[in-house]
Write a structure and sequence with these properties.
Largest sheet: 5 strands, antiparallel
CATH architecture: Alpha-Beta Complex
Number of domains: 1
Distance between the termini: 11 Å
CATH topology: Ribosomal Protein L22, Chain A
CATH superfamily: 4'-phosphopantetheinyl transferase domain
Strand order of the largest sheet: 1-5-4-3-2
Number of strands: 10
CATH class: Alpha Beta
Shape: globular
Helix content: 25-40%
Number of helices: 4
Order of helices and strands: EHHHEEEEEHEEEE
Length: 225
């Protein structure tokens, strides 16, 4: 069973701006080793800070499906990138309190504004794990009330993922549904149902600012576990 996680960060958000200069925030989320990496890349400090953040968030989404009581403290997730930190794609690993998670970070630019999408996997990426992912810009979903905007984004990304999953099985999207796990004591995460039968498909959703994203692995589905 391959578990997946994903996280998206809109670098046009005011919250992300010059956050690398916020020593309180940096000390809360990054290890000393990670801070040293960012210090060596001053021109891309914010970009690299949020790449680490997205990798940690993606890794937590992976391991919380394996061990429900795992800590979510960012400093317990140690990120090591194995590619040039100046590139537009970073591959690496996250050492977590449970197990190693493999991650791939993409940097994008839309209309002059950057954003980051990270995919995390319990198995090495590019080794037959067949993780499907997509991020999309959703300016049209913004609402003056944040909670309503968040609900719309959540519905939109589920609709996107359901349509894509349906394609793999020549099904109608309305036959794909997502429900949060209802097992007591577990971290909440979405589970995939086809014809109301729970499947082995592992899925992750995220949204931030102008963007929504999903990632999933079919895990040899069809259909029920």
């Amino acid at each position: 069973m391959i578990h997946v996680g994903n996280d998206i960060v809109d670098l046009a958000s005011p919250f992300t701006f010059e956050k690398s200069r916020d020593s309180k925030f940096v000390n809360r989320v990054l290890t000393q080793k990670e801070q040293a990496v960012i210090d060596q890349s001053a021109q891309n400090a914010d970009r690299l800070l949020w790449a680490h953040w997205a990798a940690k968030e993606s890794a937590f989404k992976v391991v919380s499906k394996i061990q429900s009581n795992v800590s979510s403290s960012p400093r317990k997730y140690d990120v090591s990138f194995i590619a040039n930190t100046q590139s537009y794609q970073l591959q690496g690993m996250v050492n977590t309190p449970v197990e190693c998670v493999y991650c791939l970070v993409h940097f994008y630019k839309t209309c002059g504004k950057e954003w980051i999408h990270c995919i995390g996997s319990s198995k090495p990426l590019g080794s037959g794990s067949e993780i499907v992912y997509r991020a999309a810009k959703i300016d049209h979903l913004f609402d003056c009330h944040f909670s309503r905007a968040s609900e719309k984004q959540s519905r939109h990304v589920r609709k996107m993922a359901g349509k894509k999953i349906a394609e793999f099985f020549s099904e109608q999207p309305e036959n794909i549904s997502f429900q949060k796990n209802i097992h007591q004591g577990e971290q909440p995460y979405p589970e995939v149902y086809i014809y109301k039968k729970k499947t082995n498909i592992d899925v992750s959703f995220s949204h931030d600012g102008r963007f929504v994203a999903y990632a999933f692995c079919l895990n040899g589905c069809p259909y029920n576990t």
